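Q: Could you fold this chain for me?
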Amino acid sequence: MNWDTVKGDWKQFRGKVKEKWGKLTDDDLDRIEGKRDQLIGAVQKRYGVARDEAERQISNFEARSSD
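A: Sure. Below is the predicted structure, expressed as structure tokens.
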């Protein structure tokens, strides 16, 4: 998954992110703006997981979204 592309199409892509991580608020999604590191931080905060777990979840999401 190319995060430059995600950043450019964030308005469409954010729906998929919201489906996967429903605890993320609209404010979280506005702050993320298609930035992977911001998404990692938001997942950590909302779900109370360690950074490596948030990265694992996002990596799995990237793999599924690339298909």
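A (continued): Residues 6 and 34 are 6 Å apart (CA to CA).
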